[in-house]
Amino acid sequence: MIRPFAALLALAALFSAPVLAAPAADAAATPSWSIAIHGGAGTLQRKNMTAEEEKAYRAALAAALDAGAKVLAEGGEALDAVEAAIVLLEDDPRFNAGRGAVFTWEGTNELDASIMDGRTRAAGAVAGVTTVRNPIRLARSVMDDGRHVFLSGAGAERFASQRGLEPAGPEWFATERRRRQLETMKAERVGALDVEFKFGTVGAVARDQAGHLAAGTSTGGMTGKRWGRIGDAPVIGAGTWADDRSCAVSATGWGEFFIRAGVAQAICDRVRLAGEGVQQAADTVIGEVAAMGGDGGVIVVSAEGETVYSFNTAGMYRGRADSTGTREVAIFAGD
Ligand code: ASP
Questions:
Q1: Cα(27)–Cα(263) distance, rounded to whole angstroms?
Q2: 11, part of any domain
């Protein structure tokens, strides 16, 4: 028998739930666009950096931030802002992505990257690439092509040349500083995690004026990696995630742990399914990584345009900007 009163209650609950769950609208505090970037996390301490080095890193971060912010301020898409910021960081030899990537055990540079569109959760990723100047552009091409999500090695490179992406030889990626890190690691028999500036991956997250989110990450991986090792950066859900319903995340850190914790997706799922704020969700998941023995950090932008960082290392190269006038870059934990 149908009980009309119960049915009515159920119907009312159905309609009222989303209304009750909706966050209080605060138009004044909501930026129309936002962006956050990172240039890796690690043992970054002021005492180990000269004033000139610090200045150069801050300038490089500011340039990448401004490139992304310009796209968003002009009404462009979050995806284009993310790509524009990451391309600059890939071309900068200071960071472990594109030019200046860390070396594998065999003395080569193997690059990983990924990008994701929060509108549809379309994604593109590449791993183990050695001949493409900007791996983030290749990841974007994989996504735009749409047939596959994740390409690796020689196949990814064939796809890159079919798409007419700019090639680069090994000498473009190789830097003396990174070669010394590999030599130090081999000579002192220390792990990748003991090499100073062990990380340095780059990434960006953005929310555009139409309210869409995107995330991207690009890396050379970890010094001394072997056997075709792939980290979290190109793994959708681990190093990169974007979903308009919750947030967009780019991660950096000890990739094995970030894969095992499914970091980027876990953060956005906590926001979407548990109703947590982005800071709380990010801190909780980075706490899980720490409890497992890993370290690193994330940048996050929420569906409302809030940008946050969370990391358990001594520092993380990072920056954020939005339409309300926020524009900051930071390196050390206390910045
Ligand atoms: N997450 C990267 C990896 O494990 C490294 C980094 O963030 O620097 O490949």
A1: 30
A2: no
Structure tokens that stand for 21 in this block: 């769950």
Cα(17) to centroid of ligand 1, in Å?
A: 40
**Amino acid 19: pLDDT:** 37
Catalytic, out of 104, 130, 201, 240 = 201
Mean pLDDT for 113-128 is 98
3-state secondary structure of 186: helix
Give Cβ neighbours of residue 195 (< 8 Å, ≥ 6 apart). 181, 184, 185, 223
Residue to substitute in 126, 225, 254, 316 for testing ligand 1 pocket (most ligand atoms within 8 angstroms of CB) = 254
Q: Which domain range does residue 275 map to?
A: 32-332
The finding on whether 96 has its CB within 6 A of some atom of ligand 1 is yes
- The 10s digit of each residue's pLDDT in 219-228 is 999 999 999 9
Query: Looking at this protein, which amino acid is placed at residue 166?
Result: E
Q: Which of 307, 288, 290, 289 is nearest to 299 (CA)?
A: 307
Residue count of the chain, please give it: 335
Mean pLDDT of 271-279: 98
How much is the average pLDDT of 161-181?
96
Please check whether residue 327 lies inside any domain of the structure.
yes
Q: Are strands 150-152 and 122-129 parallel, antiparallel or unpaired?
A: parallel
Q: Residue 51 sits in a domain of what CATH number? A: 3.60.20.30
Asked if residue 264 lies in contact with residue 238, where contact means CB atoms within 8 angstroms, the answer is yes
For residue 271, is it within any domain? Answer: yes
Distance of CA 84 to the CA centre of its chain: 13
Our answer to whether residue 201 is catalytic in this structure is yes
Q: Which residue has the tokens 């990696």?
A: 225
Tell me, rounded to whole angstroms, the distance of Cα 160 from its chain centroid: 22
How many domains in the chain? 1
Give the residues across from 34 on adjacent strands. 207, 322
Q: Flag whether pLDDT at 26 surpasses 60.
A: no
